[in-house]
Specification:
heterodimer, A: alpha/beta, Urease, subunit C, domain 1, eight-stranded mixed sheet, globular, B: about 325 residues, alpha/beta, Rossmann fold, Hypothetical Protein Yjia, Chain: A,domain 2, five-stranded antiparallel sheet, 15 strands, elongated
Chain lengths: ~550, ~325
């Protein structure tokens, strides 16, 4: 039998109310034998060969963080871009400082150009946003380089700007672009549907077989950097299930990968996604770190960053309408099929009408065929109405929220988009808590940085990027915020028996922190340095860049 | 790799929109079964719902199916714009592309995707379920969407008219006319509408409003009521109205013909329909309503043309 390893720590925050604090945890074969102190572990240590590991005696252990909703395959695209962003982003080997002016943006592009010696290589830049950087067009990029392809991608992904060299490199026929829909070729600007004239060539280049492996390795580092030991790919198969599974297997199913990925396919809509027949067969593909379960994702309304969420009255200030990603009838039909098959349904809902559709449907399904422990999960939870929270509770639904909406968008949306009341109350976690609704936090990476402590910090403080506290009454407690990135995130993935807390029999997955979140001033929560993680008993320090 | 290449010709693109269950697929099936006419390229959401007779399939090339009548059918998975470009330069080289919009899409937005080299967007065709449209436009989830779909249509196919009584039909018509003053309206059962009407549709007024922000649509139209001062010479009036059709997308009204009998006159697609009507419907000589883009109605000319159709013996009293 394998030797027991005992990790001794300054403090272990188990996230189990029965035994919230400990100082030692015994691990064997990747699983926890017992947590407590060296004294309480004695019967095990007397019975079996063991080793005391004091590496963490000045550190604090929590359960490994869990992000139940992010997108590794999209990250593989994004991480090949240089970041010039209005917000701070932490990447594996550097921290991106915010750039919030047009001059700053162009200066940074120039620096990137000058620091990259191979002048033929294209440079992809992500993060441009008019509110901060103003207008950046082809001529601005041509002034930086007439020969190197430079591509600027908008923070929302909905816009692309290319310089003349990039148009040539990616074979965009300029003569044919004159008058093309949502293309302004003079400015090198491709937006919304106009992206089809250039984006396929960019994707083809960035996700070529030669590049995708290296890109997923970067994704692995980003996930590790956040202190995660489990993540959920909440829409697996964006570039095709077979192709993606093969790429993940190559990049993640190895001893260098310190996390597992729960794979949640999307149900078919608009010709994409999987059918129920396919979904039930996927678990046969499971490997140690890559696992399908009985979770499936559905969609109601449009994207939050694009202001396409469906809002009930009084709607948007400018009067535009949101979008449905599935017709309500199709949504109901898909949900009913999944519900009847005993699947766990996750619903992308960004606006209050999207949420209303999810709840109306759940209420119908509960009436037709009552289920307990169904884990019907509201994903994102952007804009909601107070009364809807009680319905969520009554119907037994749970929430996986993206608090970064509040951080990045509440200031802009309060002034221009939906007004202060709704913008300040977006992602109303305090109401969920008051109504006893279980909730987790997610990044939706690449929509937000994959940094659980950042998201817990937003949940507990509700401080946005402008530095304002937005609706203090919707703050969570520190403990609720910590549970939302550990045990409750495990619950959302249906894995609370296996991961998410430090307790006998569970996976030995830990986040190793330099300070105790419970003894750190709450407004400093996101600044706690992460030493690294332990995945199934094996320490993985962060590589210091 | 060149993301976009085209053959140097321009292919018209007609988008067929309408909410889920309105009959878009039936309309398409009917269109695909036509033996003559232009070679169609059809983009559908879901192959499963299209009834293609296996005997008529002459080839399958990836996700493109080619039929004996020269039509090619392709399902849209992913980016519609890319699928359009691909179909436009397919081997079958379609002469006209028809796109089935998703039930939750705004057909005008889809039509805008065809504003691309080698493609020429036509005014959208929207299929409306006469039985459910009134309830749908009041639905809390899709009411606004369904209204928006109709608002920018060039041609509205009021479908399933066999399933409704006269009162329901009138309510559906009234709703559609109020929401889309520019649209031509044709009635249909089982989505059966003549291919020539559907493919010829290119309502200029609808195309103009497709380019406008949603809320401006209603401000774009004006209407003019020509009051008939007496009985009309029906054949002459029909001919006059037919000549006006290219510039006035929507014409409708009640007039008195010979022996003071009442007739309904309305534009139906590219044609003018004249039918006997309940004589009690009007207590005067009636008239015609003309609806067109603001600034486009030449009122003196309308008066001149129409007054010339009045029967001489009753035109002055």
């Amino acid at each position: 039998m394998t030797e027991i390893t005992v990790f001794v720590a300054r403090k272990i925050r188990t996230m189990e109310p029965s035994l919230p604090e400990a100082t030692a945890v015994a691990v064997r074969d990747g699983a926890i034998v017992e947590v407590g102190s060296l004294e309480t572990l004695k019967p095990w240590l007397d019975a079996y060969p063991h080793r005391i590991d004091r590496t963490f005696e000045n550190h604090v252990l929590t359960p490994g963080f869990i992000d139940p909703h992010l997108h590794p395959s999209l990250a593989a695209f994004l991480l090949q871009c240089e970041f010039i962003t209005a917000m701070e982003w932490q990447l594996p080997h550097k921290t991106i400082a915010p750039v919030r002016t047009r001059d700053g943006f162009l200066t940074r592009v120039k620096e990137l150009h000058e620091s990259e010696r191979d002048t033929d290589l294209p440079i992809f830049i992500w993060g441009w946003h008019r509110n901060w950087h103003g207008e950046i067009w082809r001529a601005d990029l041509d002034a930086i380089s007439a020969t190197r392809p430079l591509i600027v991608i908008h923070r929302s992904f909905h816009e692309t700007v290319a310089n003349s060299a990039a148009l040539k490199y990616f074979e965009v026929d300029e003569a044919k672009m004159k008058g093309a829909h949502q293309v302004d070729i003079e400015r090198g600007h491709f937006y919304e549907a106009g992206n089809r004239n250039i984006r396929p060539a960019l994707t083809h280049y960035l996700l070529s077989d030669q590049r995708v492996g290296a890109a997923l390795k970067m994704t692995r580092e980003v996930i590790h950097l956040g202190g995660h030991t489990t993540v959920g790919d909440m829409s697996f198969g964006i570039f095709g299930v077979d192709r993606e599974f093969a790429a993940y297997k190559m990049s993640f199913e190895n001893d260098e990968t310190p996390f597992r990925v729960e794979l949640i396919p999307s149900m078919t809509f608009a010709g994409l996604g999987s059918t129920l027949e396919e979904v039930v067969k996927y678990p046969k593909l499971n490997t140690h770190r890559l696992r399908f379960g009985k979770h499936v994702k559905l969609f109601t309304d449009g994207a939050f960053f694009s202001q396409l969420m469906q809002l009930g009255d009084p709607g948007y200030i400018d009067g535009h309408d949101g979008e449905w990603l599935m017709a309500p009838e199709q949504f109901e039909e898909s949900a009913r099929a999944l519900w009847s098959a005993g699947m766990n349904i996750h619903v992308h809902c960004t606006g209050d009408m999207g949420l209303e559709l999810a709840l109306d449907t759940l209420e119908k399904l509960q009436w037709e065929r009552p289920r307990f422990n169904h884990r019907f999960t509201i994903e994102h939870f952007g804009i909601s109405k107070p009364a809807q929270v009680r319905r969520i509770a009554n119907l037994g639904a749970i929430v996986s929220a993206n608090p970064y909406y509040l951080y990045e968008l509440s200031d802009i949306y309060s002034r221009d988009n939906v007004g202060f009341e709704r913008a300040s109350q977006m992602v109303r976690l305090g109401s969920l808590s008051r109504n006893g609704v279980t909730f987790a936090l997610h990044s939706d990476y690449t929509m937000a940085p994959a940094r659980p402590l950042q998201h817990a910090w937003v949940a507990a403080n509700r401080i946005n990027a402008a530095g304002d506290v937005m609706c203090a009454n919707e703050r969570t407690t520190l403990d609720e915020a910590m549970r939302a990135i550990t045990i409750n995130a495990a619950y959302v993935l249906g894995l609370e028996h296996e991961i998410g807390s430090i307790s006998q029999g569970k996976k030995a997955d830990f986040a190793v922190l330099e300070a105790d979140p419970y003894e750190t001033p709450i407004e400093k929560l996101r600044d706690i340095p992460i030493w690294g993680t332990v995945f199934e008993g094996k320490p993985f320090p962060l590589r210091r860049g | 790799m060149t993301p976009l290449a085209w053959l140097g010709r321009t292919v018209p693109v007609t988008v067929i929109g309408g909410y889920l269950g309105s009959g878009k697929t039936s309309t398409l099936n009917h269109l695909l079964a036509v033996k003559s006419g232009p070679r169609l390229g059809v983009l559908v959401n879901d192959f499963g719902s299209i009834s293609i007779d296996e005997k008529l399939i002459v080839s399958r090339d990836g996700d493109v199916v080619t039929l004996a009548n020269g039509c090619a059918c392709c399902s849209v998975a992913g980016d519609l714009g890319e699928a359009l470009d691909k179909l436009a330069r397919a081997k079958s080289s379609p002469e006209h592309i028809v796109v089935e919009a998703s039930g939750v899409a705004d057909p005008a937005r889809i039509a805008a995707l065809a504003r691309s080299p080698g493609l020429e967007p036509r005014a959208p065709v929207v299929v409306v379920d006469a039985e459910t449209i009134v309830a749908r436009t009041g639905d809390k989830f899709v009411g606004r969407l369904v209204g928006r779909q109709i608002a920018k249509a060039g041609l509205i196919v009021l479908n399933k008219v066999d399933l409704v009584d006269r009162e329901q039909l009138e309510a559906a018509r009234a709703l559609v006319m109020a929401k889309a003053p520019q649209a031509r309206i044709v009635e249909a059962c089982y989505g059966r509408i003549e291919a020539t009407i559907l493919l010829a549709e290119d309502n200029a007024a609808a195309k103009a409003i497709c380019d406008q922000p949603d809320d401006d649509a209603n401000r774009m139209f004006e209407s003019y009521l020509w009051k008939a001062q007496g009985q009309v010479d029906l054949p002459a009036l029909t001919e006059a109205v037919r000549r006006l059709l290219p510039e006035v997308p929507r014409i409708k009204g009640l007039v008195r013909g010979a022996d003071a009998r009442v007739f309904e006159v309305q534009s139906v697609g590219e044609r003018i329909a004249v039918a006997p009507f309940d004589a009690a419907a009007i207590d005067d000589d009636g008239g015609l309503v003309f609806i067109g883009l603001t600034g486009s109605l030449d009122r003196p000319r309308l008066d001149r043309l129409l007054n010339a159709c009045l029967k001489k013996q009753t035109s002055t009293t």
